TrEMBL record:
Name of this protein: SsuA/THI5-like domain-containing protein
Protein keywords: Signal
Signal peptide per UniProt: 1-25
Major localisation: periplasm
Limits of the SsuA/THI5-like domain: 45-252
Gene Ontology CC: periplasmic space
Keyword hit for Aminoacyl-tRNA synthetase: no
Entry's family note: Belongs to the bacterial solute-binding protein SsuA/TauA family.
Keyword flag Coiled coil: no
Annotated localization: Periplasm
Amino acid sequence: MKKWFKAGLAIILVAFLIIPLSACSQNNKVQTVKVAEVTRSIFYAPQYVALAKGFFEEEGLNIELTTAWGGDKTMTAVLSNAADIALVGSETSIYVYAQDSNDPVINFAQLTQTDGTFLVSRQKIDHFSWDQLKGSTYLGQRTGGMPQMVGEFVLKKHNIDPKQDLKMIQNIDYANIPNAFASGTGDFVQLFEPQASLFEKEGKGHIVASFGTESGHVPYTTFMAKQSFMKENAETIEKFTRAVYKAQQWVDSHSAKETAEAIQEYFKDTDLSLIETVVDRYKSQGTYATDPILDEEEWNNLQAIMEEAGELPKQISHDTLVDTDVAGKVMK
């Protein structure tokens, strides 16, 4: 299990039990909901569509969105009541539960259903095959993080031992991985968008494979809240989920260009054409979930990936940490 969860959550799980919930009042006409997202990414396009198109406002919700910049910080915000809802990888809810929490964090609305990273090669490869990674220098992600776990899962799927068949570099901070590759480190690198497409546009690298396509459906990013918050704010959770579902349907039925235009205000430093490229790439591989249901098959796939990476503390049943009732209700 991630060391930062072992170190930090032990204290937080005790502390948050005595802090009053920051639940928004069900009696107010407009309710404020504090949402902490793990990072700011085009990967989460439906969330920004829901904000930009006023879907939350239609439900009587005022969303206060903050970017936590890290799974540990996002979960800490929820556990300490600094946030009501988190948008983060489902694996974090498993790490929290493994700390014997008596108020577990429940996944209630899935946003993305595949990994969002791509394999980028320094050299242009016309006919890529995974065995071409053998003997190469590979810039990976942080040990225990979902991108790295998925990356290793895919490598093993193609009979590549990450520890024996290539030189895996993992001592570079997440924010500095693109710069390291651009400066000449590594033959291959695992990157999120829009960095992967930007490198391709600039001629610094070439996208040769998608980890999302290779790993299958997995609850990569979901909205989650403490069980106590969900029970005390059932109507708010339903309204929130309905707004998310509206956005998912909107993204699914509109073009990449229309989606890019809708969310551009959240990515002011990114060229509109690049946003469109990224949205189109994610849409074409089915990254954006078209409904908020996190099904059991996806949950089991997540745990299989974690177990393969040696990061699964214990098997946890789908109905323990996933609530599909709310999503099912709003879809009717």
